[in-house]
Each structure stands twice: as C-alpha cells, then as structure tokens.
Design goal:
The complex is a heterodimer of chains A (165) and B (575). Chain A is of the alpha/beta class. Chain A is built from 5 helices and 7 strands. Classes of the chains: A alpha/beta (165), B mainly beta (575). Chains A and B meet through α1, α3, α4, β7 and α5 of A and α1, β1, β2, β6 and β17 of B.
Chain lengths: 165, 575
Amino acid sequence: MIKKTIILALSICLSTLTFAQELSKVPSITVKQLDGTAVDISTIKNDGKPIIINFWATWCSPCKKELNNISELYDEWVEETGVKIIAVSIDDSRSSSRVKPYIDGSGWDFDILLDENSDLKRAMGVTSPPFTFLIDGEGNIVYKHVGYSEGDEDELYEKVLELVK
Amino acid sequence: MKVLYYFLSTISVLIVSLSIQAQNEQPLTIQGNFQIDTQYYNEDSLIGAAQPESKQGINAQGYITLSKGGFQVGGRYEFYGPSLMGYPAGSDWKGSGIGFRFASYKNTDMEITVGHFYEQFGSGMIFRSYNEPFLGVDNAMDGVRVRYNPIKGIHLKGVFGRQRLAFNSKTVLGSGLLRGGDLEVNINELFEKLGAKKTKVTLGAGMISRYQGYLTSDFELPKNVAAFSSRLDIRKGKVGLSAEYAYKMNDPNNTNGDIFKPGKGILGSMVYSQKGFSVLLRGKVIDNMSFSSVRAPSSPFDLNVNYMPAITKQHTYNLPATLYPYATAVNGEIGFSGEITYKFKKTKNAKSKIDKLLGGKYGTKVTIGYTHANTLDTTHFYSNEASLWEQYEVDPTRQGYSTNFFSMKGRNMIKDFNIEIAKKINKKWKGKYTYFNLVFDKWLVQKAVINDHIPIIYADIHVVDVSYKINKKHNVRVELQNLSTKQDQGDWATALIEYTVSPHWFATVMDQYNYGNEIENQKIHYPIISAGYLKNSTRIELRYGKQRAGIFCVGGVCREVPASNGIALSLSSSF
C-alpha cells in the first residue's frame, strides 16, 4: 500500500514537472540591441505570431550559412506566416564590432541582438552555435535545433507552418 | 517507513501545488544542457601523440537552471575522468562535483545573484569573468553580484568575490579578492526628449580592485590594486564610433618583471555600414595590462581579471585558424585593422559579362581585411641580468621601461591581409574563394609556450570552398586549402569532403598533409573521419583519426592542443 502510494506520488511529481517543462518560456535576460540600448528578451512579442531565435557568431561558418540561406527566403516566410527572426550574436568584444558590418554586408533583415558575455546563451541551455529556438504566439518554446546542414531551413519552416495553421 | 511516507507525500503535494500554481501564473521553467566528450588515445610517436596511463579521457558537464518568476537557481555538475589531453587551458580540472551554483532574484529594477556568476564591464578591458567550455577557460566569480537600474537609462553593477582557479571535485578559488562596480548611462533613455533622436549615445565607467594579502617579495608590494575604465559609444544611422580607455594602478607581478609602472590601454572602433557596403576600422594600444587576481598565476589562462580583445579577424578555415593564430599581447601591443565588405547587387538584365559574373541572380560578396600589430616602442632602463641594486640605482621607482605610447616603431608581430569572394551561382552551386597573406613572428607571439627560435613566417594561403546541393536534403561540400611558406614546418595542404543529409546526418573526411616539411619523415598525413547524428537539440559525433599539435581558438582566446591519435565520441543535448 505504502509502496504504491509512494510510486503514485512520485509519478504525479514527475508528470507535473514534465508538464511544467513543456511550457518552457524564454527566460528574462537582458541583452543589447545594435544601438546600445538594453532589452529584456522575454518582453519581445510578435502580435501572437511565431518568433525564431537563432544563436550565431561572426566566426561560425555554419551559422552564417544558415542565416544567409534563410535571408533569401525571409520575405516569403514573413508574408506567409508573419514569423519574426531574432538573430542573437554571441560574439564577444573581440568580434562584436564586426556584427553590424557583417549583417549589412549580407543584407539581412533580421532583428539583431548582442549577447556579449553569453548570459542568454547559458540561460537557454545552448550548447554550441548555430542553435535555433521556435517560439509560439504565447511565448512557449516549441522546437529546438542544434547545428546546420543545407536544407534544415525546410524543416524549421514546416514547424513554423504547423504553428500558424 | 512511515516517516518516509509522510515526507514523500508532503514533498509531492508541495511540488504538485507549486506546479499547478505555476501553470496558473508564472510557470516553473527548467532549462539546461549536457555535454560529454570522450576520447581513446593511441600512441603515435611520429606525430608526437602520447597515450596517457588511463588510455582515455572524458569531460562531462551538465548545466541546469530552474526559474520561476524572478527566482532562479542553477548549477553545473562536472566530471573529468581524467580530463581530455591538453584540457583545460590553465590549472587542472579533475574529479567530479558541482563546479558552478547560484541563486538569483530579479524584479523590475534590481537583480541580486549569490554564488557563481559571469560578468563583464564594457568590452572587458578591466573586468570579464566568462566561460568557454570548449577551450577549458572558466574564471567564474564566486560571491555576490547586484545589478540595479534606479531610473530608465542608468545601469549599475556591483561585484564582490573570488575567481575560479581550478576544479578538484569542487571549485578551487584563487586567493585574491575582487571588488568592483560599473555604471552605464544611456543618454537617449535617460532624457525623454532625446529618445526619438537618431543619434544614440551610451557612456560608461567601471572600477575593479584586487586585494591580496600575505605577500612575500623583495619589494614592498601593493596589497590593493585597482583598475579603472571609461567608455563611449555613439551611433547615428550608418555611422558608429566607440572607444574605451583603461588604466591599471601599479601591479608588480610575475608577467611584467615586478615593475611598478601603471598599465594603460585604449581600444577604438569606427564603422560605416549600409546595406551592401561597410567599412570597419579598429585601433588598439595596450601597455602592461595583464591583470590577474593573484600576483603570480601559474598559467596565462588562470585567474584573469580582464580580457583584452584581439583585433585580428578570427579565421574559420583550419590552416589559417590553427597554424598561425594571433591573440593579444596583453603587456605591450599597438595595432590597427580594417575591413571592407561590398556586395555586388543582383543584375537581372546584365549588359556585360562582368556584370553578369559579379551580379547575376544572387550577387557577389567581397570582403577585404587587413590587420597589423607591433610590439610597443619601449626603452628599458636596465637589462634582465642587472642585479636588484643595479636596477634600483638607475630606476629607483622601479618603472622598468618607458613607453612611446602611439609610436609604431616596435617590432612587427603580425600582418594579416585577407580577401574573400563569396558567390552563389545558382540554386545548386555555391562557392567561396579566400586568400590570406600572413607575416607572423610566431616566436615573438608565442614565446611563452615555445622554446626554439623560429624565423619570421611568411605564408600564402589559398582556400576554395564549393558546395553542391544534390536535392532538397542532400548536400556535398568540398574544401581545398593550401599554405605555402619557406619557414617553420613548410607547406601544408588540407582537403575536406562533407556530406550532409538534412536534418539528421552528417559525415566528413579530412586530411591535412605537411607535404613541404624539410624533414622527410615529418611529411605526415593527418586524416580524420567523422560522422554524426542530430535530432532537435541533441548531437552525437564519432570521430577517428590523427590530430596534429596546434592552437585551438574560440572567440579571442587560444590554447595549445597536443597531437593525438584515437577515437573520440561527443554527445550534447539541451532541454
């Protein structure tokens, strides 16, 4: 009897914990915008439409490849789904001054944030860049992806489409 | 048994109610990751790869944070059994246990953290505590941090604590105590009238002080050493300007020859940037700015209080990145760098061949960069052989040397010219060509870690990188690199083939070949084969082959990696 109760209690615990975990939100961490102003990333909204948060760096080749590929499709994506892409640079002070020239030189239209000492990277459990999060209209993290291979953007966009269906 | 029963039920009721409440209001969020890297080592005397007694090494870390509303607690468990060869960069990490733990609370204008934390003032010239797990650099603070925004536009930070030195089943802290504060003022946020102005101005100032008691030395040493910095950042549309000046009080230590000369540093950058065109200029002068939380760190990676960003570009191809990388010379350097990026626009109805070649359907991106860094122009007051009395006679205040601060007359350490042309030809083909011309005084830059004198290296590097998309999911990429030089180990070549199947699989075969080595039996191939599987946030990679001894860099910091021959497995996952 006692054993059963313990097992039951523990499983309730675990299930609620898992449930809570499924509701993972973007943590409240302050990062910088390109104009030097601070912003709490958890307050960024997109009118109930999905947000993609992508961690990248100017020294990370696959990251740049991914964002360059998405950049070509971005207009289309925005038109069809209203998705917003936030590209969070984890460049530290060695290379953070290279971020703006790089994005302009590449013609990106993403929102850019700087995470110079990796505070947000740590808080979101990012292992290594590139690392992508998909956030639904309520601010829940619904999908994550590490690394980039040519064609991965198709899978990401399918997930975006599922959200706006 | 009954006690246990009641205990468990109480706990579960608590957790359940907490979770239910959490779902109603602020949810309990659990985030974190795992990273495991293990390698089995073969002995390979030809490349200088040793087999440790344990024959294998493993690094494992798990990082977890729990947040609910403004509360957050977190920790990192670490296991080294033993650590991978050449890891970490500085003092040993060994055993298993909690290497990082903290609790913090945050409301709208204040955040308090107790335990371990990472923090940075400005660009880090006087203070940066950070973690670079792939390098094995971690100088986390253990203490207290407060961040406070009394009014909009004003950001205050205060830190107290000691830094992580090593790990021995728990964090081993350095003996020096750090106290510091930083103020950042965002003028446009502070004055409502200026909020809509196009010119954005941010000002900042910071201070950090080290206290280290129990000092024994031939000299009367300062127990408290402070460093100050001030900074400015102005942006208006396409133009940006930022500068930081740092000053460190007298800090005789084992990297500067126990001199009492103050340290100084200036870092500045200017950027002009618009869609398709940008120019970036950076300059830097650094004199006697090594700053550690102890006077005599046993490794240049231990207990660094500050971080001096290098202005050279971080190269990504392996020959330029790992054979001759450059990191800042913290005790004396003057340098500048420039980079121009231009994107030739798409041309739908190209008139000439050139237009079609550069424009076409996707345009062409060209980046040209140059970096130049010299040692400082200094005059030493005495030779290294002089006795203390002789030194005292010529230099009673023990300044060591005089510096001609903005003079470029010192010895050149690096000249790095590079040009990159990137072109997407059509939906299937993409190509990139990069040329590097390097002049590198390896001996001068790395004399702390190499013994033999090496003449100045002149190297030309060509890299061709071509990618072909077979279909929606399959892609193949080929990379060919050639480095030619008459110095050091002579010519090198690298060939790499990478095959990816989106979204789950990847495989690469790479060979580095030192074909120009003057010593016949050192003309060695270093083949590596690797394959991996990715799903969502999980990544598994298996690797087998030979790795040459070299320098491995992430961000601005480089460490030496010994040669190895063996099989390695990496697993990482995030949740």
